[in-house]
Design brief:
Layout lengths: L1 H26 L9 H29 L2 H23 L12 H33 L7 H21 L18 H17 L6 H20 L9 H102 L6 H32 L5 E4 H11 L1 H7 L2 E4 L4 E4 L1 H17 L7 E6 L13 E8 L31 H11 L4 E6 L3 E9 L19
Parallel strand pairs: 2-4
Antiparallel strand pairs: 1-3, 4-5, 5-7, 6-7
The structure holds adenosine-5'-diphosphate (ADP).
Adenosine-5'-diphosphate (ADP) binds next to helix 12 and helix 13.
């Protein structure tokens, strides 16, 4: 709403300016004004200076904004400044009689040349805008061609006036004594209409002043200079004055648009500074939080190491007394069996059983704490060999339940062979232990989704141990990997609840993941990833485990 009102006021301003200037024309015949050649030279000198400043500023705008309008206006005004300067010089007292044409021809023609040059450049600036609108970035024109064109035109004009005798330009018998003035006048008019239609004059400071300058230029050409019947008469001087005013209006437009740009840059800079301060605060907060997390992690690592040390020392030192208790109980049961009654034998049996379980627990705990403490650096080993070693250790159990154990070809991997064997031992051991009534089938291989042919290029492999045992309910898929977590009572299946925790620790130490997929009653598949033998560049023990279990 506001903008529309402002546009209306502006448009009224344009009309009023045009009308007022034209009305001034009616008053002029009554004024018998006559200035001089000196006044003319001074006016042209002023026009030259303003045109130079306008040209330079428009080119600066072009280089900061890269739009064709400023390029044409900049080049146009620089050329016009040169032509105006030339016009001032050739019509000055000092050069009288030194050029082939009389002052009466030289003055109007060199004036028209400068006016035509500028009007065509402004018109071209509007055409160039239309091209840019149509073609976007591609429509942008190379400045070199435009500078060269403007330069050549200016030099040709100089030479033309200096060397060629000019025909008369004033026709006292006509109502419009200088009809040639209508040619630049027509270009100014077309450019005015073009820029009005472009419709940026409502919002863009520069264009709103440019339109006013074009109206003044048109009136200057069509109303005043065309009517000038003699040099230095009233029409002549007003036309010169209007030319200066039109240049000044363009200059005001440029200054206003520059001010607006600086102003918005300042506002943006302020926003940026505020945002920057906020960011810095955020960065500081984050750094503090990171420091706190690092501190916690250190504390955790320290207490973890202490716990591991404790578990290791405790399980290691408990082994000896436990062995003693166990063997004493066994000796008691053997040597005093006939001296004890049933209750005595029962209690001794409990003690032997308890000591045995305690020994297994302590021994598993020792294995668990040794994974990190006593692990060897991973080297390239055959996963198949490690698996076969585990199967040999389990031979008795395999035979006992007549299990069918199949080992598919396994790749070479980067691992501590003893730990890899331990991993297979626990997984295959569980597969045998948690069997159903049918013949236990255990299968060990590389995950089928990773073709074996790719072996050489893989960073890691996914191996699996599959059984057809009792299976696991999905809700326990994660819990079973936690130390001491068992899903069955010792009377159903013996065990300590440490086996899978050891597996997890071994896999993580090698930078891999361990998880289970299972259907209760149909069997389970334990998957684990392990670096390939070729992945020597990534030190596996330093890799971050991604997830403990899926
Ligand atoms: P343990 O076997 O000594 O109880 P583990 O840590 O090896 O301890 O296993 C934890 C639990 O996971 C077991 O108690 C059992 O319930 C379940 N589990 C492990 N392996 C299997 C398997 N192959 N099939 C079914 N359940 C299994």
């Amino acid at each position: 709403m506001e903008r529309r009102r402002a546009g209306r006021i502006q448009r009224t301003g344009y009309v009023a300016a045009g009308a007022l200037l034209t009305a001034g024309f009616a008053a002029l015949p009554q004024v018998s004004w006559r200035s001089s050649r000196e006044v003319h030279t001074h006016m042209e000198a002023v026009a030259t200076c303003i045109a130079l400043v306008v040209g330079a500023m428009a080119l600066v705008r072009f280089y900061s904004k890269k739009n064709n309008t400023f390029l044409f206006i900049g080049a146009g005004f620089i050329g016009t400044a040169l032509l105006d300067g030339y016009h001032a010089v050739v019509t000055s007292v000092q050069l009288t009689g030194r050029l082939p044409s009389a002052l009466e021809a030289l003055e109007p023609w060199s004036w028209v040349a400068s006016r035509l040059f500028l009007s065509v450049c402004v018109y071209l600036s509007w055409l160039a805008w239309r091209r840019e609108e149509r073609l976007g970035e591609q429509g942008r024109m190379g400045e070199t061609a435009i500078y060269a064109g403007a330069g050549v035109l200016t030099v040709l004009t100089f030479l033309f006036f200096a060397l060629i005798p000019l025909p008369p330009a004033m026709y006292p018998e006509l109502f419009f004594h200088r009809p040639a003035e209508f040619v630049p006048g027509a270009f100014f008019l077309i450019a005015t209409i073009g820029y009005l239609k472009k419709d940026r004059w409502r919002t863009d400071e520069f264009e709103s002043w440019l339109v006013l300058a074009l109206i003044v230029s048109f009136v200057c050409q069509a109303v005043y200079m065309s009517r000038s019947g003699a040099m230095f008469d009233g029409y002549f001087d007003v036309a010169h004055l209007l030319k200066i005013v039109s240049y000044a209006l363009v200059l005001i437009g440029l200054l206003a648009s520059m001010y607006r740009t600086f102003d918005s840059v300042a506002v943006q800079a302020e926003h940026l500074a505020t945002a920057n301060a906020g960011l810095q605060r955020e960065v500081q907060d984050r750094k503090k939080a990171e420091a706190r997390v690092a501190e916690r992690a250190n504390e955790l690592a320290r207490s973890n190491a202490e716990l591991e040390q404790f578990a290791y020392v405790a399980s290691h030192d408990l082994q000896e007394p436990l062995r003693k208790i166990s063997s004493c109980c066994a000796a008691l049961a053997e040597d005093y069996a006939d001296k004890l009654d049933d209750d005595g034998r029962k209690w001794i049996g409990y003690a032997v059983d308890g000591a045995d379980r305690m020994r297994r627990l302590v021994s598993d705990l020792l294995i668990y704490s040794r994974v990190a403490k006593k692990g060897k650096p991973p080297v390239a080993v055959s996963a198949e060999n490690a698996c076969r070693t585990a199967i040999e250790d389990l031979q008795e159990a395999i035979e006992e339940c007549a299990a069918d154990v199949t080992v598919h070809p396994l790749p070479r991997v980067l691992a501590d062979e003893t730990q890899l064997s331990q991993l297979f031992l626990n997984l295959i051991g569980n597969a045998l232990k948690y069997r159903c009534d049918n013949v236990p089938c255990v299968e060990i291989g590389v995950d089928a989704t990773q073709p074996h042919e790719d072996v050489a290029n893989r960073d890691e492999f996914t191996l699996y141990v599959r059984d057809n045992g009792i299976g696991i309910e999905p809700e326990y898929f994660e819990r079973i990997f936690v130390i001491f977590q068992r899903l069955h009572h010792k009377t159903e299946y013996s065990g300590t609840g440490i086996g899978l925790a050891i597996c997890k620790k071994i896999v993580e130490r090698h930078g891999g993941r361990l998880w289970v997929e299972s259907t209760p009653g149909r069997g389970s598949t334990f998957f684990f990833t392990i670096p390939s033998a070729g992945a020597t560049k990534n030190e596996p023990s330093h890799r971050q485990p991604t997830a403990a279990a899926h």
